[in-house]
Write a structure and sequence with these properties.
CATH architecture: Roll
Distance between the termini: 60 Å
Radius of gyration: 17 Å
Strand content: over 45%
Keywords: Signal
Shape: globular
Strand order of the largest sheet: 2-1-6-5-4-3
Organism: Spirosoma radiotolerans
InterPro entries: DUF4440 (IPR027843), NTF2-like_dom_sf (IPR032710)
Pfam families: DUF4440
Largest sheet: 6 strands, mixed
Protein name: DUF4440 domain-containing protein
Number of domains: 1
Order of helices and strands: HHHEEHEEEE
CATH class: Alpha Beta
């Protein structure tokens, strides 16, 4: 009986995790939220799974980085988010194969040892690649 109960619990957790991944791959808003959560959780594997191979990020200081550098920064501890809260997000979908998610991100952390605590407005451009939503561009602009 314990074996059956343990198996059911394991199946429940596995199904929940799979459903969350599937939702992110099928819904651009869920993908955007999963991206910000992965940054907060310092989960470089999830970040890598959500972005396109040619991702470009324009940071709030105007610097441009590619997806590989973002993943390295998250996995290597150079990019640390202590707190992060997405608000006022709006997602617009175009022709069922591209989308733009905009909103505000209040975050605190550090990049290569330099602390920040600010609000930025963001644009996340999402496109379907081989039928799967991927983040292709992210831009952060300091909020005034």
């Amino acid at each position: 009986m314990n074996y059956v109960f343990s198996s059911l619990i394991a199946l429940l957790f596995t199904t929940t995790a799979f459903a969350q991944q599937a939702a992110a791959s099928q819904d651009p808003t869920a993908l955007g939220h999963a991206f910000f959560k992965a940054l907060l959780d310092e989960d470089s594997k999830t970040v890598e799974s959500l972005i396109s191979s040619d991702l470009e990020v324009i940071s709030f200081d105007g610097q441009s980085i590619d997806g590989d550098l973002l993943v390295q920064g998250v996995s290597g501890g150079a990019f640390i988010i202590e707190t992060g809260d997405v608000s006022d997000e709006v997602t617009r979908v175009y022709n069922n194969d591209s989308a733009v998610m905009t909103g505000t991100w209040k975050s605190k952390g550090n990049i290569q040892g330099q602390a920040f605590d600010n609000s930025v407005t963001f644009s996340v451009v999402i496109a379907k690649q081989a039928g799967i939503w991927k983040i292709v561009n992210v831009q952060f602009t300091p909020a005034r």
